[in-house]
Write a structure and sequence with these properties.
This protein has 9 helices and no strands. The protein has about 160 residues and is mainly α. It is globular.
């Protein structure tokens, strides 16, 4: 979701390959297996095009809070509930990663669905953390490009 939010297409493509492989082979490694959280299921839905309920039956987590996104019924005002969900999950399961503080999934959902975040009221939607520059593609630094290439060679 971070790659989608930031528009780093090459990183998104690389991770999408991994999600498709995990979904098709039932691999239980690579991205910690299938049953991570509803956000992982949403991304698997975007990547594979599979119905979230079918994904859940095959081992992914239930889609829960992201159902409207997957059903393409999301409205701008729905971001308030998603921000509340992000905040609640942050307090319940803070992973210690700074990226978990930024609601990247909301920015990615906005980019992937075309439904804008408008007139936000929730504090997570008004913070400078969700402000971003609109650029067509964030360049991938050579160091990250090397990691991606090495991963593709070592884990086809």
């Amino acid at each position: 979701m971070q790659a989608a939010a930031l528009g780093t297409q090459s990183v998104l493509d690389w991770l999408s390959e991994r999600v498709r492989r995990i979904d098709s082979t039932g691999e239980e490694h690579g991205i910690s297996g299938k049953d991570m959280n509803p956000l992982c299921t949403l991304m698997a839905h975007f990547v594979t095009g599979r119905d979230p309920e079918a994904l859940a039956r095959s081992g992914w987590a239930p889609i829960t809070a992201y159902r409207a996104v997957a059903q393409r019924s999301l409205r701008s005002g729905d971001y308030e509930a998603l921000a509340t969900y992000h905040s609640k999950r942050l307090h319940e399961d803070f992973s210690g990663h700074p990226s978990s503080v930024v609601p990247f999934e909301l920015l990615a959902i906005e980019r992937l669905t075309g439904v804008p975040i408008e007139n936000p009221k929730h504090e997570w939607l008004r913070t400078p953390l969700v402000r971003r520059r609109q650029v067509p593609e964030i360049p991938v630094p050579p160091e990250l490009a090397a990691v991606i290439e090495r991963s593709r060679r070592n884990d086809p």
